[in-house]
Amino acid sequence: MAITEIVQGNGENAPRHTSARIAWFVVIWSLSTAAFFGGAALLHLIVPK
């Protein structure tokens, strides 16, 4: 189930269970955090000391 399928429209197709909503939040938060640290690590490697 792609996140773009969930957020279409007014949210009528959003997951009804609170646990599913929390799971989506945790997944999105984790991926964004990983992307931030990955970008920071890459920037750290690129910028000379």
Automatic annotation (TrEMBL):
The keyword Membrane applies. The chain crosses the membrane at residues 22-47. Keywords: Membrane, Transmembrane, Transmembrane helix. This is DUF2474 domain-containing protein. It comes from Acetobacter ghanensis.
